[in-house]
Specification:
The chain is of the alpha+beta class and 419 residues long. 38% of the residues lie in helices and 23% in strands. Strands 2, 3, 4, 5, 6, 7 and 8 form a seven-stranded mixed beta sheet that branches. A four-stranded antiparallel beta sheet has the order 1-11-12-13. The chain has a three-stranded mixed beta sheet with strand order 14-15-16.
């Protein structure tokens, strides 16, 4: 039994191609792959895939008697057929992980697996790390002794020799395979811990199939946050390929203006199908935004805002902010409207905090320095925000009724995209 009383570290590159001998010492074949049981932080190797010519067998790890230079099996070791289809909770490391892209959760980026690092202890072989460094690739190519020797002679202090580019396996749990057997390694919890902008950037770097795999592993809220940060084209491609029910749930979680941008990229028939699948209040908001040209204020604004009537108090304002916390992600100010919905002014959060809770909004409100209408252009709202140093600009219709707001982050995003 391999090293039952001690431990050692091994690399996958050192195991691939090793001779596998039967119990009587005759050659069975060479190591072609290792199969691990998923679900543990450091999954154990369950079996060894052995290849001889075009034939392949799967040998249980418990049948391995010795592994020093060669792999020697126990007498009577059982040779099992290799399943061509993926097996639940099992992962073929060489076929499904090596040379694939994974998500580095700590670094919030995509990296490539160049080698795998194992710990052999107590008769078990477990995956400990993935090697994403250049040295791992050199090792895989069989050049490590030569390259290490040359670098040690010429540059003994080189980072190549000192830096171990290893990621703990527990950060790269397996998920479903996409067509082409691509895997993006990350758990739902780990993905949800990434900033939405980082997750969106990772999505942008993937091909279409890989994006789909990643999206399927996200919960609705995380997916919505990420797609808000992704380009509308990428978000539309992804939503077009998931079930309409899930796509509708994601669109409902997104800000209405972001949902409208994504839906505008979809074919008319698909767009209508998703609008019908959405809850009606959200669908109506998005449908209204879709009626405005993309380069207009109406197409850029969000209808999400906090508004109250003049007779309501500062305490009422805070209660409304708390009530709608899940709907309105960022609150910059509270708007005051009359019974017809016409804008009468606004109150900053600072003013609300400093005010007496019983103070009416009519007493606290200040006049908006500027408003824009839904038919104005991006340049108009950008100039207004810049001139008055605003974080949001109220949008009204021809009758002065408050229809929504344009936030400075949306203005900046449009300006950057235009460049």
């Amino acid at each position: 039994m391999p090293n039952s009383d001690s431990f050692r570290f091994l690399f996958f590159a050192d195991l691939l191609g090793k001779k596998v001998l039967r119990g009587d010492g005759t050659l069975l074949g060479r190591v072609a792959d290792l199969v691990v049981v998923t679900g543990e932080p450091f999954p154990p190797v369950e079996s060894v895939v052995v290849r001889s010519g075009k034939q392949r067998w799967q040998v249980p790890w418990t049948s391995v008697a010795e592994m020093n230079g060669k792999v020697r099996l126990r007498t009577g070791a059982e040779l099992q057929a290799v399943s061509e289809a993926p097996v639940a909770d099992r992962l073929r490391l060489g076929e499904e992980v090596l040379d694939r892209q994974i998500v580095d959760i700590e670094g919030a980026k995509l990296v490539r697996v160049n080698d795998l690092h194992f710990l052999e202890s107590k008769s078990q072989l477990r995956v400990a790390h993935v090697d994403i460094g250049f040295r791992g690739l050199v090792r895989r190519m069989g050049w490590q002794p030569i390259v290490d020797g040359v670098v040690s002679f010429l540059r003994p202090g080189s980072s190549y020799l000192k830096d171990a580019s290893m990621l703990p396996w527990k950060l790269v749990q397996p998920i479903e395979s996409a067509p082409g057997r691509v895997r993006i390694e990350a758990t739902k919890k780990a993905l949800a811990s990434l900033h939405p902008a980082d997750l969106a950037e990772i999505m942008e770097e993937l091909d279409r199939d890989q994006r789909q795999v990643l999206l399927e592993r996200l919960d609705v809220e995380t997916a919505a946050d990420a797609l808000e940060e992704a380009s509308p084209e990428v978000a539309a491609q992804l939503l077009e390929e998931v079930a309409p029910e899930k796509a509708a749930d994601i669109l409902e979680e997104m800000a209405p203006d972001e949902s409208a941008d994504v839906l505008s990229e979809l074919p008319g028939e698909t767009r209508e199908e998703l609008l019908e699948a959405m809850e009606q209040p959200e669908a109506r908001e998005v449908q209204e935004l879709l009626g405005y040209p993309r380069n207009s204020v109406g197409g850029l604004m969000t209808p999400d805002r906090i508004q109250l009537y003049p007779e309501q108090t500062a305490a009422d304002a805070f209660a409304e902010v708390r009530r709608r916390a899940d709907e309105v992600a960022m609150v910059y100010e509270v708007f005051v409207v009359d019974n017809a919905g016409a804008l009468k002014g606004y109150v900053t959060l600072r003013d609300l905090i400093m005010a007496d809770p019983s103070a009416p909004m009519s007493q606290l409100a200040r006049e908006a320095p500027v408003t824009v209408v839904v038919t104005d252009k991006l340049r108009d709202v950008a100039l207004a925000a810049t001139k008055y140093n605003l974080v949001s600009v109220p949008v009204v219709d021809k009758l002065g009724v408050l229809r929504g707001i344009v936030t400075v982050d949306d203005i900046l995003a449009e300006v950057v995209d235009a460049r």
